[in-house]
Amino acid sequence: MILGRRALLLSTVAIAATCSACGGGGSGSSGGSSGGGSSSSSSSSSSSSSSSSSSSASLYPDYNTSPLAADSTGVTSTAAQISSKIKLAINIGNTMEAIGGETAWGNPLITQDLVNKYKSLGFDAIRLPCSWDQYADQTTAKISATWLDRVKTVVQYCMNADLYVVLNIHWDGGWLDSHINDTDKAATAAKQKAFWEQIATHLRNFDERLIFAGANEPPADTAEKMSVLKYYHQTFIDAVRSTGGKNAYRTLIVQSPNTSTEYAVSLWTGMPTDTATNRLMFEIHYYTPSQFAIISEDQSWGKMFYYWGKDNHSTIEPDRNATWGEEDYVDQQMLAMKTHFVDQGIPVIMGEYGAWRKTTPLDLPKHNASVTYWNKYVTQQALANGVVPFLWDTGSLIDRATLAVKDTDILDALLTTAGKK
C-alpha cells in the first residue's frame, strides 16, 4: 500500500481526514449489518449475478474458451480450514503491481531464493499484489501471454516452497477503483470478467494453496457504491467458477469497502453468492491510526504520530503522541471482525497491515519501541480473533537483493506472537 502507490495513499488519507474521530484509513467502528454466511444467497445477489453475466458479455471477447468439468482434486479444504493453517504471512509489495514493470518501483525481480527465504523465516503464505491492465490490450482486454507466464512462474515459486499464495488484481492504474459507480458499472464489470477468465484459466491447475482475490482496496464509502462493489465481487466469483477444473472449488477472497473494518460492519450487505460451499474469505486492511502507520509528512487535518501504545508516549515530544487508535481501538476492531465474520463461518484475512520506522522523531527509543509494539499488538489481536495477518512489506523487512533481515526487532516480534519462535 505504501511507498509506491501515491494515488491510493492519498485516497486513504482522505478517508482518515473525514473520519479522524472514529478511525479512518482501513479501520472502523461497530454497528450496522453483519457479513452473513459464506455462501448466503439473496434475491438481490442472484439478480446481480445474472445481470453481471448478461450486461458485460458483449464489450470484450469471451475468454472462457476451454471450460473444464469441476475437479476437486487438491482443492478439498474449506476456506476456514485453509485460514487455520496460516498463522503469519507477508506481501511482496511494490513489485508485480508496479506501474511500468516488475522492477519499476525499485525492487528486483522475484526469485525462488527470495520466496524460499520467506518460508525459512517462518511465513506460511505470500500475498502477490499484481497489475494486469498495463499488460492488456485496451481494446480487447487480452492480457499478454508473457505476463501471464511470468505470474505463473512466481506462483510456482510459492508452490515449490509449500506456501499459500494470494494473487489479486491490485490498484492497477485505478481501472476498477476509479469506476465504482452505476454509470461505469457495465464496462468495468466487463473488464473484471475478461481479466479473471484469463487469469483463472491460465492458473487453474494449481492446487488449493493458490487463492484468488478480486480487488485490493476498492474505495466505496456509501450504500450506493457498496452495491456496485458487490456487483464487481459477484462478477469476479462467477468468472473464476465458470472456468471449471479446480477453480470450481478454489477459495476466493472479496474485499470490504475500502478494506475498512468500520465499513465491514456499517456498509457490508453480505457475501456474494457462490456455487461452491464455504470457499469464500473476506479481506480487510489495517493501518490505524493513519497518522502513525501511513502518512510521512504532516497533513492539514492532522500531524504525524511518532509514539503509540500505553507505555510508549514521549515526554520529549508530547505533541507527537497518538491521541486515538491505540490498544482499545485495535481490540474493538478485531473483535468486530470475529463477531460479524469469523464467528459466522467467514474467514477474514488482514491482507495488509504494518507500521515502519521514521528517522525524524526526537525520542527515537520511544519511537522504535512504538513501531515494534504496534506490529506485535496488531498481529496478536488479529490472531486472537481468528483474523489472518499479512504484513505489508516493500523491502523494509527483508532486503530483496541480499535476502538479509533488515529489521530483526519487528521480525522477532511477529514470529514470537505467531508462535513461530
Characterise the protein shown here:
There is one protein chain. This protein is an alpha/beta fold and 421 residues long. It has a single domain, classed as Alpha-Beta Barrel (TIM Barrel), CATH 3.20.20. The chain is 36% helix and 9% strand. It has an eight-stranded parallel β-barrel, surrounded by four helices. 54% of the residues are buried. The N terminus is likely disordered. Belongs to the glycosyl hydrolase 5 (cellulase A) family. Keywords: Carbohydrate metabolism, Cellulose degradation, Glycosidase, Hydrolase, Polysaccharide degradation, Signal. This is Cellulase (Glycosyl hydrolase family 5).
Tally of distinct domains:
1
Give the overall pLDDT as a whole number.
90
The amount of helix comes to 25-40%
Strand order of the largest sheet: 1-2-3-4-5-6-7-8
Question: If helices are DSSP runs of H or I spanning 4 or more residues, what is the number of helices?
Answer: 12
Report the CATH architecture.
Alpha-Beta Barrel
End-to-end Cα distance: 28 Å
Low-pLDDT sequence parts = 1-55
Quantity of strands, as a count:
8
Largest sheet: 8 strands, parallel, barrel
Order of helices and strands: HHHEHEHEHEHEHEHHEHEH
CATH superfamily descriptor: Glycosidases
Strand content: 5-15%
Structural class: alpha/beta
CATH topology name, in short, is: TIM Barrel
Cα-atom Rg, whole angstroms? 20 Å
* Molecular shape: globular
Which CATH first-tier class would you pick? Alpha Beta
GO biological process, one term: cellulose catabolic process
Domain Glycoside hydrolase family: 93-395
Region (Disordered): 24-57
InterPro entries: GH (IPR017853), Glyco_hydro_5 (IPR001547), Glycosyl_hydrolase_5 (IPR050386)
